[in-house]
Amino acid sequence: MGKHLALRPYQQYAVDLIIRKPAVGLLLDMGMGKTAAALTAVKSLLYDYFDIQRVLVIAPLRVAETTWTEECREWDELQDLTVVPVLGTLKQRLTALQRPADLYTINRENVPWLAELYGSRWPFDMVILDESSSFKNHASKRFRALKRVRPRIHRIVELTGTPAPNGLMDLWSQIYLLDGGARLGQTISAYRRRWFIPAGGYGHVVYNYEPVKGAREEIYQAVSDICVSMKAKDYITLPPVLYNRVKVRLPENVKAGYKRLEKDLVLELGADTDIVASTAAVLSNKLLQMASGAVYDETGGVVEMHRAKLEALADIAEANAGRPVLVFYWFRHDLERLQNAFPKARQLKGAADIRDWNGGKVPMMLVHPASAGHGLNLQKGGSLIVWFSMTWSLELYQQANKRLHRSGQQHTVIIHHLIAEGTIDEDVMNALQEKRKGQDGMLEAVKARVREYQNQ
């Protein structure tokens, strides 16, 4: 048996809003129980109002696979809802679609396939976008596919805690899916013309826009009748979260090699900032790899440079003996080296791993932030996070940390960052603390490197 679902007042407000409005955006902070609120509203619309018949949930892969099913199992009031994941091979997906269910969950990458499969016979009269910020790109295949079938969708709900991770430009496509362009314009071009000015470009190509004075307030006002924003700090008392920098000192020979690599790559970039911008990711990737302890050579092989971070992680695990550790890594060779160094560690791959972690059966879980950054409930399995290698993405960083620091967590969450001294790790950490956007922080760091070596 599950547990009794006692919705908080703000969750009940969200439920009522979903029932009342055919299109609504719930901009709720991570960990505020968006899924439970949405499921409660779905159940009422299905069996009290008889307003809908078939619900599609579009979510990140891991969330589509586990979160919605597990949420129904957890609560007595939701256990009679049936959820069928539409995942796997083509045959598995087609078979899943033939099964009767209240909700079907699918990963966002397969939305174009689903829209193509049904076309004008689109059968889902309600669609829930779990983490709607993944539809922020107006040129993406997933957005264009959903836009085509949008007229056949009776109800749509967007759930996200980060609606505009890279700025106001990210809002247009998400709001368009709600209202067909009624509030922010029929096209992205109209949206830009009304509220933005060009702020960077090359020739006739504009690649950056800045909002005009007062644009933010006007845009928020324009969408205020179909979007509601709630912050966790205003409604939920969570345990404290502590952020800790663990300084990792590289061996002298490795540090010298790092400086040579940094200088050679920077000097190849030259003084032109346009060239810097186009190759910043290459420089950043190489330096982050070396700071973590290994680099890919020209053939794709892995060359280990040091084990300083592995040793630092071992110290943390030993000092917290008995406490499960959630480790975030970025590069594939990070995962391989972590698995070799910690044989009992497990990579998070699917539902069984999540259940075992929350059941206290996994001493160390290895997770890539891009695969577990949204929607997964891991707070029952531990309260200790270690960032083995860093990410420039503020959205992924915040979402990943919220896997533990969310409603239901009983202990203080401690987040350790393994920072290699004198490396790009420090730039990433500073950018995240200053809440700079990932690409902007990366470019500023690279430009600083260029200026440093030009002045020598």
Write the SSE topology:
Blueprint: H1 9-20, E1 23-28, H2 34-47, E2 55-59, H3 61-74, E3 83-85, H4 90-98, E4 103-107, H5 111-118, E5 126-130, H6 141-149, E6 155-160, H7 171-179, H8 188-195, E7 196-202, E8 205-211, H9 215-223, E9 227-230, H10 232-235, E10 241-248, H11 252-269, H12 273-292, E11 294-296, E12 302-304, H13 308-319, E13 325-328, H14 332-341, E14 346-347, H15 351-358, E15 364-367, H16 369-372, E16 384-387, H17 394-401, E17 413-420, H18 424-433, H19 438-454
Parallel strand pairs: 1-6, 1-9, 2-4, 2-5, 3-4, 5-6, 10-17, 13-15, 13-16, 14-15, 16-17
Antiparallel strand pairs: 7-8, 11-12
Helix pairs in contact: 1-2, 5-6, 11-12, 11-19, 12-19, 18-19
Salient structural properties:
18% strand; Rossmann fold; six-stranded parallel sheet; 45% helix; alpha/beta; single chain; 17 strands; seven-stranded parallel sheet; 456 residues
- Strand arrangement in the largest pleated sheet: 3-4-2-5-6-1-9
Overall spatial form: globular
Query: What's the architecture of the largest domain, going by CATH?
Result: 3-Layer(aba) Sandwich
Number of strands: 17
- DSSP helical segment count: 19
The CA-CA distance between the termini, in Å, is: 69 Å
The CATH superfamily label of the largest domain reads Tandem AAA-ATPase domain
Strand content: 15-25%
Number of domains: 2
Q: Could you tell me the mean pLDDT?
A: 87
Rg computed from alpha carbons, rounded to a whole number of angstroms: 23 Å
